[in-house]
Amino acid sequence: MSISGGASSTSSAAITDCDELGIVVAEEAEHVRERIFWGSDSAYKRQIYKAAIAGDWSKALRYNITDPSRLCSVLTKQGDTALHIAVSMEQTSFVENLIDHMSLEDMQIRKVDGNTAFSMASISGNLQIAKLLLHKNPGLVWIKGHKNMLPIELACWANQPLMVNYLFENTRLDYLNRHLSIEEDIVRMFFLALNTSNYSVASSLLDMYSELARAENNDGLTTLEVIAKLPSEGDGAGYRDIVRMVFEHMEGEEFECARISEAMFDAAKLGNDMILEFMFGYNANLLMEVNSKGQSLLHIAILNRRVTTYQLILSKGAYTNAILQFLDFKGNNILHCAGKLAAPERFGTPCHSLLLSEERWFQEVASIVPGAFKSMKNVKGRTLEEIFYKKHKELHERAMSEQNETANNFMIIVTLVTTLAITAALTIRTNPVQGPTPIFKETTWYIIFLLSIVVITTLLVFSMLFFTSVIHSPRKQKMFDQVNARHRKIAIGCLFLFLSIITITFTALCAGILIFSFFPKWIFIFIMALASVPLVFSCKIYDFVTPISLLVHKNDLF
């Protein structure tokens, strides 16, 4: 004891001296804090800590017999008790036994980060443990944890929808009014539920508190603006319900037109057509609104390549004719917008496919604008085609490089298949076959084999010619004509390559019959059936028909 005490005194003196000199010895200070924390109780704290991790209740109970307060004491510098540790390790049986020996106050102990054991159960989504804790102490649901958030908010933040629904179902309305304030807690919970796509809870809160339809989040955004920025959930019932309820509460209320208009443009940018449908039903004149850049809703849909939003706007009859005449503050009509490069988030598809898609967009928009607009220049004096080619020049170069790489890769495959076909032709036996051959005579099989080799070679030569023409194609064509033609050549080359692979499979069967004619007929039938399986799968995987159909229907936007 004297030695330990001396060491402690020496360390304390050293730290004091360092402080006087203005020096902070971080490591020594940390060691002193640890010794002070653990003290003489370090042995039992470590044992309870290990028992909680392992879920060994019998071991932990021995310390409860000697001193009942030990199971509820803080075990770590982070403020963990045995209950915190058992909950984090999901030791359900240990938790069930432990809470029988704890008071309600002990269950409410918070860690350094502010979380109770119940908050940790909410974050982890462990319903079984949460039910045990809540049954013993219903007040846990109102104790705020990390960042001053309620357990239900923490569950929302951790994306635990089942836990959120359970906590909300066990929270009575009178308790909400008693424990929470509409100005802070409920508004925060409502927007958190929206942002985590928990629309059932958000709908229930909106049903209880209609003023939430006009509430603003910490960023100053209204409910409508937040929903408009969320990704569309299609026909999801919960999503549709929350949108419907917001607009029902808007009826008869005075909302700022500018804020509704801003939400509408956000929805159009993200392709959130459900919001737009409700907005047009709420006020059809919103179709004629323009944003701060003078762009109409159709400008935004085309700039962001939102096909369904584009179709929705065009379906609005007389409004469409007026929108087509709109120019933004830079003198750009909707065809100028189609000539600009797509939004960055669309990049991820192959460059040549994206470039062809851009061309189809341009052609589609050109088909609906008045004739005079097609030759119109903007305030910078740029025509539609000038904007188009300038904005897509880099994409065109990347598409060309991508197509060259694709053609080179296929050239390697063609070379390998050609080598295989020639090798097969030179190594087949020519001496008479012993015994009858299945289906056809021996001479017939030799003829079929020779013809199939000729067909394979012809197909491979054609395939090689098409791939070579892609690599060495002249650059005299227009941007899209060039990419389109190269894409067509690659597709046809792939088709010839695929046909040659089918033929070489049949050729291999012919060679097998000539070499192993003494085998029963069913063996060759089985081999042929088995060989057709990878051919079918390769056709499905590589989808050789799609590239050709894409080019044939190149005016199809969708």
From TrEMBL:
Compartmental location: Cell membrane
Segments annotated as ANK repeats: 293-325
Transmembrane segments: 407-426, 446-470, 490-516, 522-545
InterPro entries reported for this sequence: Ankyrin_rpt, Ankyrin_rpt-contain_sf
Keyword Transmembrane helix: yes
Residue ranges the record marks as coiled coil: none
Major site of localization recorded for this protein: membrane
The keyword Glycosyltransferase is annotated on this UniProt entry: no
Keywords: ANK repeat, Membrane, Transmembrane, Transmembrane helix
GO cellular component, one term: plasma membrane
Lipid bilayer topology: Peripheral membrane protein
Protein name: Uncharacterized protein LOC110273951
Top-level taxonomy: Eukaryota, Viridiplantae, Streptophyta, Embryophyta, Tracheophyta
Gene name, Swiss-Prot/TrEMBL: LOC110273951
